[in-house]
Amino acid sequence: MITLTDNAATRVLNHLEKRGKGLGLRLGVTTTGCSGYAYKVGFADESNDDDVVFESKGVTVYVDADAIELIDGTEVDFVKQGLNEAFKFNNPQSKGECGCGESFTA
Fold first, then answer.
1. What is the DSSP-derived secondary structure letter of residue 52?
2. pTM here?
3. Which of 4, 22, 29, 50 could staple 8 via S-S, CB 3.0–4.6 A?
4. Nearest 5°: phi and psi at 71?
5. Contact, 75 vs 3, CB < 8 A?
């Protein structure tokens, strides 16, 4: 299961409204970075047959089937720190992150 905080859900819903299209949030992972995996975040404009789909705070979350094992149970937050803003992932599957926080080990 993937959940969103209020901040993350608000951010996604606002961007979907501005885009004028989209079904929800798409999450996945890619092999990269110094720790092995990096999160992929985007908008879902279509549903794939192998997507794992969740609903959280009014947002439909589409997860690439090959990523669910690595991110199941993750809470997605959206934080602002000064001029920086980003999605943050509280992933119970993560065994560690790189120093810059861009990749994780599972």
1. E
2. 0.86
3. 4
4. -130, 5
5. yes
